[in-house]
Amino acid sequence: MRAVRWHTDNPWVLLYIQRWLTAPIQREDGTIEGREKGTPQGGVVSALLANLFMHYAFDSWMVRNHADKPFERYADDGVVHCKQEAEAERLKADLVARFAACGLELHPNKTRNAYCKDDDRRKSYPNTSFDFLGYTFRPRRSKSKHGKYFINFTPAVSPSAQKAMRQRVHDWRLHLKPDRSIEDLSRMINPILRGWIHYYAAYYKSELYGVLRYVNWVLTHWAQRKYKKLARHRRRAEHWRGRLARRQPELFTHWQMGILPAAE
Asked: Which of 5, 42, 46, 74 is the most buried (most CB within 10 A)?
């Protein structure tokens, strides 16, 4: 969605937001610059104002007008659950009108209906998936506690989130840090890996394994740059890393969950 102007149903909230939006800013050189609207790029209050705005523009409106439809919203991204396609189309039209009245527009490409296809919903629709908060929700083969396989509409880490994590690992440039010890690398990257695993491994964690194996590959590259005897021997470096992982699995968070490299 794209914000064009602000609007709220509460006059006191409106007053405070007006003061925030027009408060002058002070530059690094001490000069004062006045503003008429908007918040500075990266301003700490921007997210707070956006959530206040969306609470009145969307959350409260949904409770008043569509109390029978559960929804989730984070910042300007949201999902609403409907029982029928016609119901979803009516809601979409209502949302277009509501947001237009608040000076907002629905994103033309990201706003769409998705059919939650599984073993109980087997019809064919052009769109059977959607992304939300770094997860892709779509039909997946799952296994029940009784060992029976079935199709379930379930989340897993999205391809775009995987790509972003791989890029983050690449940007660490571990192969340019041969002066560091393996313990140094552990202290540097474990907090990040732990955060990814706690968030993205909550559902269908096997989708995250590719990213974690890429971390193993990067560690192999680091070992080849650090130790001369491994420099020209990728296979030997992989075996060295595998033996280390089995001796000290506590070194890296993903090793502790079983994503171990191969060893001789």
From this structure: 46
Question: pLDDT value at position 25?
Answer: 76
Q: How does DSSP assign the chain, residue by residue?
A: -EE-S---S-HHHHHHHHHHHH--EE-TTS-EE--SSS--TT-TTHHHHHHHHHIIIIIHHHHHH-TTS-EEEETTEEEE--SSHHHHHHHHHHHHHHHHHTTEE--TTT-------SSS-----S---EEETTEEEEEEEEE-TTS-EEEEEEEEE-HHHHHHHHHHHHHT-GGG-TTS-HHHHHHHHHHHHHHHHHHHTTSSGGGGHHHHHHHHHHHHHHHHHH-GGGTT-HHHHHHHHHHHHHH-GGGSHHHHTT-PPP--
Main-chain phi, psi angles of 209, to 5 degrees: -60, -35
Tell me how many degrees the CA angle 89-103-59 measures, rounded to the nearest 5: 60
Q: What is the pLDDT of residue 2?
A: 36
- In angstroms, how far is the first alpha carbon of the chain from the final one? 53
CB contact burial 26-43 (16+ within 10 A = b; e otherwise)? eeeeeeeeeeeeebeeee
pTM of structure: 0.81
Q: Provide the pLDDT for residue 10.
A: 56
